[in-house]
Amino acid sequence: MATQAASPEQFTYRTSPTVTEAFEGWLKDHAPDMPVHTDPWDVARADIYAEDRWQPIFAEMRAKAPVNQVRDTPYGTYWNVTTVKTIQHVESLPELFSSSWDRGGITIGDPPADVSPERLEERRLPMFIAMDRPEHTGQRRTVAPAFTPGEIEKMAEEVRMRTGAVLDSLPFGEQFDWVDKVSIELTTGMLAILFGFPWEDRRLLTFWSDWAGGTELAFAKELHDTRWEIFQEMANYFKTLWIDRMGKPPQRDLISMMIHSDAMNQMSPQEFMGNLILLIVGGNDTTRNTMSGIVHALDEFPDQRDLFEKDPSVIPNGVQECIRYQTPLAHMRRTATADCDLFGNAVKAGDKLALWYISGNRDEEVFPDAERLILTRENARRHVAFGYGIHRCVGARLAELQLKVLMEEMHKRRMRVHVTGAADRVRANFVHGFRKLETTIEKF
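Now predict its structure.
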């Protein structure tokens, strides 16, 4: 790497406030400063996800205009792309529809207009998911060996052991937060293993992931510096791990893979930070929110919970259906590199497109009765939650393994989970999930 690392004694890192605490604190004093979303099809508004009322808006778009443009929103003018067909079409043309960070990246927000070019340049965070070929190819190939079928098989026993230990620690008949006790604990532990991260500090990975995924922070200018400082603390921590592993033989952890890769061992500090954020958010928020979504959906559809309890053979396909139903990342962005026709719509070079995975996974033309969880759905694997084409999630197999093992170990313990308290959803248009899910378990 192109930078020198500080020793752990030379820097400090915080563990609070959480991004939710910080943003809600900011909102108390700045609620009137929040932008107003006036277009009914402006689905970049976070409240519809926090309040779980996004479904009919997307259903209307899919029926009337699967590709449509909304103008002058708080996120600017952008195209909504809402069906499986249209999403996969855009993702299959990566040269025409760019993911590159220097064209806008992968989320719907743009850099603040009132920030100096120097500050913007300093705080850009290139990452391989936000790169086009050929840069994307080399960096993706660096981390891909950690997620091959062979490597996943090697992890399976440890995943099962850790999952069983977490489930065995849960109290029957007492209410607890499933997000904190199960979803965060399992995914953060998996990340710690992948990075070779100190076990006692593993909850830092969740803390950093949440600050990285907080897209609403774009409107809270007073928190921008806090967020950047937290990212720097994260990078400093990882630099110590990087320096410690330099000169050592290659290992299976992701940091060692980066060190021994020509495509990644000379990254700038910003690129290093960007790729860390990608791998942390990709490995944490997505699986974590599906783990919470599984128990929420089974509680919402008791007939499917009954099927799960009576017939564990539905679990492998059921994992795909739960991923489809939850859709842990609501959207990905692309930017047009040239004028083109997109299903009868005149897209111009530079236009922003939001690919709404959350809508594609409720596309009735592909998934009949799409608003229902159906564990035996024959085409559940056609979901677009992992993306499509060259940017399809590199860790998809590991996510599937973790979810499959969770359902299998729940079944082995005859564990029925009821939602008995708060089901607080993330207030964001990117990460789609739960920040709290109060549950009580019993035997079936």
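The beta strands are 67-73, 76-81, 97-98, 176-177, 331-336, 340-342, 345-347, 352-356, 415-425, 434-443.
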